[in-house]
Amino acid sequence: MTEEEQLLTFEPIICGVMKKGMVLYSDQHHDDYLQELRMLVLNKLREVPDLAATGNNKLFTWLLWRLYEMKRSRQVYTFRETQPILDHMEPYSQGDIYEADYRLMLAHLQRTKLSAEGVQRLLQDMLTYPRDKHAARIERLAISRTHYYRFLKQLHIDIDKFLVG
Predict the structure, then answer these.
(1) Which residue of 6, 60, 74, 83 has the fewest C-beta atoms within 10 A of its own C-beta?
(2) Residue 144: which residues within 8 A CB-CB, separation 6 or more?
(3) How far apart are CA 92 and CA 140, in angstroms?
(4) Contact indicator for 33, 23 with CB cutoff of 8 Å
(5) What's the rounded Cα separation, in Å, for the pair 68 and 158?
(6) In the 8-state DSSP scheme, what is residue 165?
(7) SS3 for 2-61, per residue?
C-alpha cells in the first residue's frame, strides 16, 4: 500500500478533527489546515507504519491539539493604548490637588464598597502611571487580561456613580 493510499484511509479522522475543531469549509484557512493535518498524519505514518486508521483516539486528540495550535498561531493580538479614564484627574502642576482627587476617589470607593480590591489596585496603578499601556499594567498588577478588563469596566461604572452621586 502506497503512502497516498494509506493517507486516504485516515481521511475520516482528519475530517472529524476539522469538524471538532470547528473549521468549516467556508473558513478561509480550511485548505491550509487540511493540508497541514494530512502532512502530520503522513509524518506519523512514517514514524509508525502500523498506525490504526479507525478507533485511534490518541491520534485524533493529538491532531485536534495540533489544529488548535495552528488556529492559535494565526490569531493576532493587539494591545490598545490606555485612554485617559479620568479627564478631570489628569496630573496637575500642583501635586496636592491631584493627591486630593485621588484620596477622595479612593475614600468614596471604600466607603460605598462598590469595587473590589482589584479595582482599587487598578485605580491606584492608573493614577500612579497615567500614560502606561494595558500590557504594562497587566504585568505590573500580575493579573490576567480578562480580570484587567473586568476591573476596568467596574472602575468605569464606579467612576460614573461617583461623578453622578
Answers:
(1) 83
(2) 138
(3) 24
(4) yes
(5) 38
(6) -
(7) CHHHHHHHCHHHHHHHHHHCCCCCCCCCHHHHHHHHHHHHHHHHHHCCCCCCCCCHHHHH
Q: Which three cell numbers stand for residue 32?
A: 491550509
Closest CA to 86 of 101, 97, 108: 101
C-alpha cell at position 22: 470547528
In contact, 109 and 124? CB cutoff 8 Å: no
Q: How would you class 105 by CB atoms within 10 Å of its CB: exposed for 0-12, middle for 13-18, buried for 19 or more? A: buried
pTM of the model: 0.47
H or E stretch including 164? helix 145-164
pLDDT per residue as tens digits for the range 57-95: 999 999 999 999 998 888 766 555 544 444 444 444 444
